[in-house]
Amino acid sequence: MGMWIARQALVVASRSAPRRAILEGAGIPCEIVPADIDERALESAAPDGEPAAVAAMLAHAKAAAVAKDRPGRLVLGADQTLAFGGRIYSKPADRAAAHTQLRSLAGRTHALHSAVAVVEGGDIAVGLGRHALEIIAASGRDRWLSHLFLPRGGAASPPLRTARS
Fold first, then answer.
1. What is the domain count for the chain?
2. In-domain check, residue 38
């Protein structure tokens, strides 16, 4: 018997295969329902642009967007922001963008802010339902990467998967 005691599976507002694997590995049955939100628009509308606050806002927005159509269900939304030098880094669109990001982070300490929001109830806008939010921050330093390790990528390359995908 797994850890999960709810009658219905946890609704996960994410496409993340690693996130699903972690939950299922912990014995938590999942129903995957990716949230249809414009993350970049929400980021740009964030009042102070603080990376931890942006991660929390995105996690909550994902959970709330999915929960509105699933009353009475527990919905998990999660997001991460990678920040360095006052800038939040988004997922690179292609290999060239990934190359640029890795070069800018190489040898420097950056911060990863992870946020998880759990929402129960579909009527979030008027404050009904339960909300739980957790933010975890970690810092890391990438190694210096040589040009041999990071070959130049072409703009036509497909999007890359990241640790956050």
1. 1
2. yes
Predicted pLDDT of residue 143: 56
Q: Which residues, in sequence order, are bridge partners of residue 133? A: 117
Question: CB neighbours (10 Å) of residue 11?
Answer: 23
* Alpha carbons 74 and 9: distance in angstroms, whole number: 8
Q: Which domain holds residue 24?
A: 10-80+110-137
Residues classed as catalytic: 79
Rounded to two decimals, the pTM is 0.73
Place of tokens 């995957």: 32
Do 49 and 60 touch, CB atoms closer than 8 A? Answer: no
- Give dist(CA 43, CA 57) in Å, integer: 8
Residue 99 DSSP SS3: helix
Across the chain, mean pLDDT equals: 76
Tell me whether residue 116 is exposed, middle or buried, using C-beta atoms within 10 angstroms of its C-beta: 0 to 12, 13 to 18, 19 or more: buried
- Locate 156 and state its tokens: 């036509």
